[in-house]
Amino acid sequence: MLLEWSEVLLRLGLAAVLGGAVGLERERKDWTAGMRTHMMVCVGASLAMLVSSFGFEDILGRPDVELDPSRVAAQVVSGMGFIGAGTIIVLKEGVIKGLTTASGLWTVAAIGLATGGGMYFAALAATVLAIIILWVLQLFEKKVSSRLAPRGITIMLARQEQSAAIVNELLGRQHLDIAYCNIAKSDEGYQLSFRFKNISRQELAGIMGEFQSAEGVKEINWRNK
C-alpha cells in the first residue's frame, strides 16, 4: 500500500515540528546541536521509516525475494551513535559535556521513526516527555544537586611547593572530609582543587579567608559542583 502524498507530507512535517520542539530547548542553552539539527535528524529518521515501510512495495511478495524492510529503520538507531558521539566532549577526568544532547538526538531519531510509522500519539507523547525531562526537570535537578553536590575551592598558586604545603595543611585537619584533591600545572602557575563532603558555607568561607592572604596565593575561588 502506497501512502498518499498528503500523508507523506503530514508525517514529515510533524517530524519537523516535534524535532524542532525538542531542539528549541537545546537552542535556548546555545548548544551546537540546536533546533535545526534536531529537526533534520527527526525528519531524516521519519523519511527512513517511510522508506523502510513503503519503499519496497514493488518487490515485496515476489517468490524469489526475501527482504526485511525493518532493517532500514534499525540502522537509524545504531547510526545515531556516530552523531551523538560527536556532541560529547571530555573536558578532563570526571567532567564530560554533551551527554544530554547526544541522548536527545537519539530520542529525536526515535520520534522521527514513530512519526514515519504513523504512530502519532507515541511520537507526540515522547516529545512532551523529552521536553519535560530536558527543561522542567532541569530546575528540580539543580535544586537537588546544589544541596547534595560537594562544595569545593580552587586556589591558584605561583610555586609547586606552596601547593604541597596547603595540601598537607588541609589533610591534617581531621574534621574535614575531603572527597577530591587535584594539583594541575598551567601557564599561570599551579591550580589546587579541593572538594569537601558535609562542609557548611561558613566553614568553606573560613578556609578561603585563611588562605586568601597566604604567601603565593594568586587567586582563590569557591564552587558548588
Automatic annotation (TrEMBL):
| Bilayer-spanning residue ranges | 6-25, 37-56, 72-91, 120-140
GO CC annotations on file: plasma membrane
Q: Where in the cell is it found?
A: Cell membrane
Listed A to Z, the keywords are:
Cell membrane, Membrane, Transmembrane, Transmembrane helix
Record's keyword annotation contains Transmembrane: yes
Q: How does it sit in the membrane?
A: Multi-pass membrane protein
Provide the protein name. Transporter
Q: Name the protein family.
A: Belongs to the MgtC/SapB family.
InterPro entries tied to this protein = MgtC/SapB/SrpB/YhiD_fam, MgtC_SapB_SrpB_YhiD_N
Origin species, per record, is Filimonas zeae
Q: Show where the MgtC/SapB/SrpB/YhiD N-terminal domain sits.
A: 12-142
